[in-house]
Amino acid sequence: MRTNRILKIALACSIVAIMGLSFWSFKVDQKNFEISKNLDIFYTLFRELNLFYVDEVEPEKLIKTGIDDMLVSLDPYTVYIPEQDIMGDAQGDLLVVSWGGTKGSVSSAVRAMQAEGKKVSHAHFNYIMPLPKNTEKVLDGFKKIVVCELNAGQFANYLRMKHPVHQYLQYNKMQGLPFTITELVEHFNNIL
Asked: Which of 45, 100, 125, 191 is the most buried (most CB within 10 A)?
């Protein structure tokens, strides 16, 4: 009688466990179905944009933007730092590094030198602490690196501390005035 009762309890427990697993399996299948459905919608939207949009669609940029926005929406409290972009070639004679409010004049000076056929590129840092993960790779592609700052050179010193392998030239201005394109072009030509 006692073994019969234990058998009934074991049978009831196994039935409950099987039912629980089937419900859990149904939830997993439902979740996978939702993921699959949304990926199909994304692919269809991307295909339609690629075929019928007026401007040409850059697939890598579009997907990267989508992923970046998704990461931000999933976890708005974690700072997602994108890779460092370069204006110009990834390798050359001179990399001009800037940050903050110097972007306009520095990028204009670099564009002027590029128009003259010089192998100069510009990396404007929007994220400093921490630096983007590809900072070392960006710096490796150039023979010389000059850091332009409207202060005593704090960012250049920070780069020396974080990436000591490279030699950093500095162009600092502490007069309360912005850089002019002419002075930057002249200084960059002197470096080359």
From this structure: 125
Indicate the angle between helix axes 103-115 and 181-191, nearest 10 degrees: 60
Whether the Cβ atoms of residue 157 and residue 135 lie closer than 8 Å to each other: no
pLDDT tens digits, one per residue of 85-124: 999 999 999 999 999 999 999 999 999 999 999 999 999 9
Domains of the chain: 2-74 (no CATH), 92-191 (3.40.50.920)
Written as six digits, the tokens of 153 are 């050179």
pTM: 0.61
In 3D space, the residue among 132, 114, 121 whose CA is nearest the CA of residue 97 turns out to be: 121
Structure tokens that stand for 24 in this block? 């859990």
Residues whose CB falls within 8 Å of the CB of residue 189, separated by 6 or more in sequence, listed in order: 113
Nearest 5°: phi and psi at 124?
-100, 120
Report CA dihedral (49, 55, 61, 64) to the nearest 10 degrees: -30
Question: Helices 59-74 & 2-52, crossing angle to 10 degrees?
Answer: 140
